[in-house]
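Entry 14: structure prediction run for Phage holin family protein. Input pasted below.
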Amino acid sequence: MSAPGGQSLLADILDHLGRLLRRELDLITAEFRAALGRAGVALGLLALAVALALTGFNALVGAATAGLVALGLDPGWAGLIVGLVLVAVAWALGRKALGDLDRLNLVPRRSRDNLRRDAETIKETLK
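Run finished. Output tokens:
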């Protein structure tokens, strides 16, 4: 077996390794919390897009349809045109929000990179 000094060194290495892993886990947790916060903002934008689309349908469909009818369009065609325009706007807002969600990076890259560096350092130290 190893000499007492070797056991002490091994205990110190294991202690440092434990503290290092705890710090890395803390970093991973912080990165996930930040990413989830950004996801919450994007989901809020998506909810706002839906609310605006519904409000737009309720508030503008009648007035816009009446305006097109006043210009001489048949009421059915006027309603169809207004509805399609509002759906297109809602679709664009929804795509923006979904695009923001897709661009979110939920992988804790800094933690992953740090763990790789730590593993390399440990390998080099143990050689």
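Notes: The mean pLDDT is 86. Will compare against the previous run tomorrow.
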